[in-house]
Amino acid sequence: MLVRIDPDSPAPLHAQISAAVRRGIAVGEIAPGERLPGARDLAAALGVNLHTVLRGYQELRAEGLVELRRGRGAQVRTDAAPAVAALRQAVHALVGEARRLGLSATEVTEMVREAMA
Amino acid sequence: MLVRIDPDSPAPLHAQISAAVRRGIAVGEIAPGERLPGARDLAAALGVNLHTVLRGYQELRAEGLVELRRGRGAQVRTDAAPAVAALRQAVHALVGEARRLGLSATEVTEMVREAMA
DNA sequence: AACTTGTTCTAGTCTGCATAGAACAGTTAG
DNA sequence: CTAACTGTTCTATGCAGACTAGAACAAGTT
């Protein structure tokens, strides 16, 4: 599992970290049940603070993609199927673009509903 | 042309302003060639600083959506084609992925609705 | 029991956001 | 031409979030 970070990016480091893992799951680089690198290890590898990595991991947990337990580390949930992760990413991209355009939730969902019909 | 702002949103005010105008152009509320409200007026109407509005306007200029000139104000460029193309692309990608997974329209729209919240 | 790993807490620095006021330079209207 | 309007530029200040840092703690593994 490879996580790359761009310190010059306007995107927060923790967001970059969670995005990298998210993508890894979506593309299949990371298998369900697989353990992510320890927060302290990854932090050292990226030249970043422990708390920054932890925050990224906790974002993934909030999305239901990984489980975090002391002593065991971060583990990709078995029900976090790659396809689902891919879908989640597609939703993410759409929502991001919609936000950029300032569209409301109903406007976007209406577009999706039409496209699905 | 209506511009609404949420001071409690994590999104910067200048981004919210540019997004509102962007949306107006995308949806057709604002016609090409139309003049946007003066920065000082809009700032007063929104209870926001002049510089904040100006920054939003300048973002739109950087995207080639509007022209800014002293004395004349902000004008929507006639060739400001709806940037909705990117949005439609995102919708297309999402729908394709959702179909591949056999998800229903309501399931997908619900995911989008959640992600937009 | 020793070690690992996430959790929580406090605290400090730094950057971007937003505000504020002023002076300036094209543009338009009277 | 003059006056009013509008974006441009400059300096300065307060604030919140991001990131770092160090420490102590709790649950799990070996």
Automatic annotation (TrEMBL), chains A, B:
One Pfam family this sequence matches: GntR
Keywords noted in UniProt: DNA-binding, Transcription, Transcription regulation
Entry keyword DNA-binding: yes
Domain HTH gntR-type: 11-79
GO molecular function list: DNA binding; DNA-binding transcription factor activity
Protein name in UniProt: GntR family transcriptional regulator
Source taxonomy: Bacteria, Bacillati, Actinomycetota, Actinomycetes, Geodermatophilales
